[in-house]
Structure formats: structure tokens, C-alpha cells
Amino acid sequence: MRLSVIGCGYLGAVHAAAMASIGHDVVGIDVDTRKIESLSKGEAPFFEPGLQEILAAGIESGRLRFTTEMAAAKDASVHFIGVGTPQQAGGYAADMTYVNAAVDGLLPYLDDGDIVAGKSTVPVGTAAGLAPRVEATGATLVWNPEFLREGWAVQDTVDPDRLVAGVPSGTAGERAADILREVYHPAVGKGTPFIVTDLATAELVKVAANAFLATKISFINAMAEIAEVTGADVTQLAEAIGHDARIGRRFLGAGIGFGGGCLPKDIRAFSARAEELGRGESVAFLREIDAINLRRRDRAVELVVEALAGTVFKKNITVLGAAFKPHSDDIRDSPALDVAVKLHGLGAHVAVTDPEAIANAQRVHPQLTYVEDRDEALRAADAIIVVTEWDEYRRELSPEHAATLTAGRIVVDGRNCLDAAAWRAAGWTYYGMGRP
Ligand code: UDX
């Protein structure tokens, strides 16, 4: 099939390359010339495992190309909208400028019977607002939310847990759902649940899923706060409650909390939208989820201060991690960098290291010191804090080896990812999050 993907950021670039990898003919369109140049050369503009390979293979095969010209969408019959919906400057609501611009820019190139499939995460009601403009061209607007996780984006796109298609009622909607089934034929063929809903439900599925995930993380972090004043261990608590299949162990990792380009902004946009709809109280708890999440960053800083006998001023602190999570170079709303910035603000000499995210971090927080080499970063540290659970720190850094490099023997485990007993046995004072 001939597809266009409007917006070649994280979502769009992965989607375009993944669709080409399953045999479609794809054109990716974006206004960012540098991004398009890089993608056209088969080079991923950000770090995402597996993307480079499918991108290069797609370009090589001739089935994948990128351009800044919206007119290139003319040849396609299914058009995916994958532009960003960032948090509005000075507010909680989503900024819909890019979605509106993408749809308006596409309108002149739509043919009768085309499908426009929104993938961006949008406030519920967006599709209903856009539909008349799209339908006036004879095309059908559907909402097909994307659930990809960074670090697993290619796999999540090609082989998702489920596919959701929000379609209008009637034959146009049924036809659109059939076309989407055809687009995702390998996943549909192997029995991946394909859930057809109305437009509003599809939009809500996405924000509800992210709100639930954020709630799960903040729930366990709230338990960590209680554990801290009672001497309980939140990691054992998570293990014990996680064995209940109704609860499940995943996303019960207590630590410095969630960040990234999705969960924080999506729960805020959801709150803002619910308030607009006069149902703010229904999701008022999301404000609390956000607050708990942000408190954990302060708690991590507090632990470092406590460990260094009340002050970090002029102390050497090594911050292991900058990305918001491992297998990513994304530093958007990164709890890791927030902790580093806060320690720096308290007068500490902070050395930040990360296997992938230093270049991005440097651009946004040039005031911090960055060290590429992990061991170099550890040298002469009075304390170290793990803030992104990369294998380089979690598995590959032995406490004995670390001790040969640092000045002090204080380790704060902001992700509860280290073997506390092993670090203690090697002479370190270990501090976890929500652990005695
Ligand atoms: C998320 C959703 O998982 C995905 O479905 C959606 O499409 C986009 O948002 P992503 O932002 O890539 O994906 O990251 P995710 O793996 O969900 O992690 C989000 C944050 O939560 C990270 O900062 C991570 O470190 C943190 N986290 C995750 C925890 O603090 N504890 C956990 O137990 C799990």
C-alpha cells in the first residue's frame, strides 16, 4: 500500500520505517530540513535500537523516502499524522498547533476514499473537531493511537500488544477499519487484538493507558514514602503485591519516578481536558500522581545531602545517567537530569555520565559537567547516585571496581537497581529509595 507519514519525530520516523519494513511504500514528511536530510541518508536522528537498520534497509529498497514537500502525500492513500502535541508553554493543556497544521497542510492533497489516520496523542474530542475538514475532501478521518515505548519502539510498532482503530459510524468507518487491518496485516494475521471503537474512545484509550501507567508508578512511589518513615522496604512490598495477578509486577519500580516526552505531559493534558469538559474532579487524582512523582526527585537529592552529613556544597558527586530511562538518548522531562541540576544548584561539583544522552543533555543544561567515560566520571567522587538504570551501571559496574576510583564510599540508588548487599559487602554505604 502507499502510505504517507506526516511528522518524522520519534513516532513518525519509527512508524514510517516500520511500515516500509513490512512491505509498504512510504513517504515520510516533515518541515524540519535537517531531520529529513538525515533520514533520507538512512541515518536515525535519535538513538533507538533497531531503527537504524530498518531505516537503511527501507531507503535501500526504494520503498521508503523522506521529504519536506507535503505534495508528496498526493500519491499515498493512507496518511498517518504523527506530529507532536507538546505541553503548552505556561499551561497544562496540549499544544495542538502541529496537528492542526499537519491536517490543514494535507487537505489539498487528499483524494476521495483516502484515509487520514491520526496517531498523535490528543485531547479527547480532537478528531471530531477535525473530521468535517477531512470529510469535505471525500477522505475519512480515523484515530489510531500509538503505544510505542522508547527503546522498544520498532518492536512495539511492528508487533504491538493491540491495535486500536477509532472510526466514524457507518460504511465509511467500516471500510476505514478494513483498510487499517490491511496496513497492519502481519500483526493482524498473527492474531493481535484489533479493537474498533468510535473516535472519542480511541483518543481516550491512549490517555487512559498512560494515566494508568503513571498512576501505577506514583502509587508505588507513595508506598516508598510510607516505607521511608516506617523502615519498610518498598522493593519487597512491590514484589509481594506484584505476585497478585490482578496487580502485576510491572511498572511497580519505585525510585525517582517517571519522565520522558509522554507520561508527564499526557497526564497534565488529560487533567486540562477533563477540566474543560467540566469533569476535572474525575481525574483530580492525576494532580496528586504528578506531585508524588516530582517529590521523588527531591527525595533523591535529600538522600545525597543526608549521606554527605548535611551538605553537598563543593562535594564531588557523580551522576550515573541522564536519559529519562535506559536504551534511550531522550532527556525530555528526565528525572535523572533534574536531580543532577538540583545537586548542582546546591553547590556540588556534579559530573554527569550517560552512554547515549550526553549530547542532548549538554544542549539543554550546559552548566553541568559531562564525562563520556564512566570510570573517568567516577574518579574522586565523594558520592555517586544512579539515576538511569543502564546495564553499564546496574550490571557492569562492580562495587569493588567503583571503590578503586571514588574518594568516598557512598552510593544512592535512585532506581533501586543495584545489588544492595553486594555494594554493602564491598564497604559502601548504600541508600535506596523507600528502603531502609
Ligand atoms: C510511555 C508508555 O509506556 C507508552 O506506551 C506510550 O506510548 C508513551 O509513554 P515511554 O515514555 O517510552 O513510554 O517510557 P516508559 O517505559 O513507559 O517509562 C516512562 C517512565 O517511567 C520512565 O522515566 C521510567 O524510568 C519510569 N518508570 C517505569 C518507573 O519509574 N518505574 C517503573 O516501574 C516503570
Automatic annotation (TrEMBL):
It comes from Microbacterium lemovicicum. The active site is at C262 (nucleophile). Its EC number is 1.1.1.22. It catalyses: UDP-alpha-D-glucose + 2 NAD(+) + H2O = UDP-alpha-D-glucuronate + 2 NADH + 3 H(+). The keyword Ion transport does not apply. InterPro entries: 6-PGluconate_DH-like_C_sf (IPR008927), NAD(P)-bd_dom_sf (IPR036291), UDP-Glc/GDP-Man (IPR017476), UDP-Glc/GDP-Man_DH_C (IPR014027), UDP-Glc/GDP-Man_DH_C_sf (IPR036220), UDP-Glc/GDP-Man_DH_dimer (IPR014026), UDP-Glc/GDP-Man_DH_N (IPR001732), UDPglc_DH_bac (IPR028357). It is an enzyme of class 1 (oxidoreductase). Residues 318-420 form the UDP-glucose/GDP-mannose dehydrogenase C-terminal domain. This is UDP-glucose 6-dehydrogenase. The keyword Oxidoreductase applies. NAD(+) binds at D30, K35, T85, T121, E150, K265, R332. GO terms for molecular function: NAD binding; UDP-glucose 6-dehydrogenase activity. One of its GO terms (biological process) is UDP-glucuronate biosynthetic process. Keywords: NAD, Oxidoreductase. It comes from the Bacteria. Pathway: Nucleotide-sugar biosynthesis; UDP-alpha-D-glucuronate biosynthesis; UDP-alpha-D-glucuronate from UDP-alpha-D-glucose: step 1/1. Substrate binds at F147, L148, R149, E150, K206, F251, L252, G253, A254, G255, G259, K325. Belongs to the UDP-glucose/GDP-mannose dehydrogenase family.
